[in-house]
Structures are given as structure tokens and as C-alpha cells.
Amino acid sequence: MAYDQGLAARLTDLLAHHPDISDRKMFGGLALLCRGHMFLGIVGDTLMVRVGPKDYAGALAMPHVREMNFTGRPMKGYVYVDAPGFESDEDLARWVEAGLGVVASLPPR
Q1: β-strand partners of 107
Q2: Among 48, 50, 60, 77, which is least packed by CB within 10 angstroms?
Q3: Could you tell me the pLDDT band of residue 1, with boundaries at 50, 70 and 90?
Q4: Above pLDDT 70, what percent of the chain?
Q5: Are 79 and 66 in contact (CB under 8 A)?
Q6: Is 7 helix (H, G, I), strand (E, B) or coil?
Q7: Residues with Cβ < 8 Å from 15, sequence gap 6 or more?
Q8: Looking at the predicted structure, is the pLDDT value of residue 42 above 80?
Q9: E runs forming strands in the chain
């Protein structure tokens, strides 16, 4: 499955200042990692965000957000955000910060 190259470019721009970011092709899309921990991804034209268990229910209550159900079972702590939910640069930046916030407290892998 191809992933949205335009979204990938937007994320690259947002994360250019962050030294600990890497990417890896996963799930038929692109995963972004911080210090070895996945925090964002692109599957097709959908953004995948690691929001963590504490903010999971709140994230699901937001418009254009749904549970990440990649394997037939929901992945708790991860959500899919459809394109209208990150259309503006400000909205995309908020999702990036949410994902980074979850992995910031984790030890490097």
C-alpha cells in the first residue's frame, strides 16, 4: 500500500528540528519513531498517532478520529486520524506533539 507522500513531506518539515526522529516502512505505510519508539505513522492517507492509554478515550471523542484496528483488534493507545482532522498545519502539529509527548517519557530503545 502506498502512503501519502505529501503528508510525509509535511511531517518531515514539522520534525526537521528534532534530532531523534527516524522513519521505517511498516504496515504497508510509513512509521515515524522517536528514540526507537513509534509515535506516528501514515497508512494510505490516514495518520496514525500514539496517544497513550491516558488520552485514548479523549482522542476517540474528537472529530475525524477512530480506533486503530489494523489487525482486526483495536490497538489501545493508538488512533487513526482521517485527513480532515489534520488538514491545517496547526492540527497536524498538535497530533505530532501528542505522539511525541507519549514517547518522551519512555527510555530509548
Answers
A1: none
A2: 60
A3: low
A4: 99
A5: yes
A6: helix
A7: 21, 32, 96
A8: yes
A9: 21-26, 29-34, 37-43, 46-50, 65-67, 78-81
Rounded CA separation 72/74 (Å): 7
- Whether 27 shows a pLDDT value over 80: the answer reads no
pTM attached to this predicted model: 0.93
Q: What cell was used for 43?
A: 497508512
Other beta carbons within 10 Å of 71: 8
| Mean pLDDT, residues 45-71 taken together | 94
Sequence-separated (6 or more) residues with CB below 8 Å from residue 56: 76, 77, 79
Q: How far, CA to CA in Å, does 97 sit from each of 21, 61, 90?
A: 13, 18, 11
Identify the CATH number of the domain defined by range 5-104: 3.90.1150.30
Angle between helical axes of 89-104 and 5-15 (0-180°, round to 10): 60
User: Is it the case that residue 62 has pLDDT exceeding 70?
Assistant: yes
pLDDT recorded at residue 69: 87
